[in-house]
Amino acid sequence: MSNRTWVAAGAVSAFLCVAIGAFGAHGLQLSERFAATYQTGVEYHMMHALGMLAVGLLGDRFGRPSLTSWTGRLFAAGTVLFSGSLYVLSVTGMTWLGAITPLGGLAFLAGWALLAISAVRPGKRQ
After folding, report:
1. Most buried among 30, 51, 91, 95, using CB within 10 Å?
2. Residue 108 is part of which domain span?
3. How far apart are CA 69 and CA 104, in angstroms?
4. DSSP calls for 54-81
């Protein structure tokens, strides 16, 4: 994916995060337990929306465009799996969804590791 695509994806993800967060704060009646879980989803969602923006903005600076693109993909997958599972769990009470959340966390960790590798490992400049 191009750098512009990652900037757009990050911006859309951040937009959705703000909308989902506002809906959770003002439109849902969540118990204290589930409100905290929902908020965790919102926080990680925004952090990784900003990560996708960083991928788009920094992608040209690193000589490893395929690694930075995979970073964005992992951030997007992590957002769906981690934050998405927390949102659904909080709204529905289906606690078994908590088993999916760590998969999103692993995607986040892998994305950050790839971003670090792409920053320090020399590659071909395009």
Report:
1. 51
2. 3-120
3. 17
4. HHHHHTTTSS-HHHHHHHHHHHHHHIII
With beta carbons less than 8 A apart as the criterion, state whether 111 and 50 touch. no
- Assess whether pLDDT exceeds 50 at residue 77: yes
Identify whether the C-beta of residue 110 lies closer than 8 Å to the C-beta of residue 125. no
Residue 126 lies in a domain: no
> Residue 39: is it exposed, middle or buried by C-beta count within 10 angstroms (0-12/13-18/19+)?
middle
Tokens representing residue 32 in the block? 């204290």
CA–CA gap between residue 114 and residue 66 (Å, rounded)? 10
Show the tokens assigned to 25: 């704060």
Looking at the domain assignment, is residue 125 inside a domain? no
Both tokens assigned to 96 = 């078994």
Whether 125 shows a pLDDT value over 70: the answer reads: no
Identify the three-state secondary structure at position 28: coil
- Looking at the predicted structure, is the pLDDT value of residue 126 above 60? no
In the chain, the number of structural domains is 1
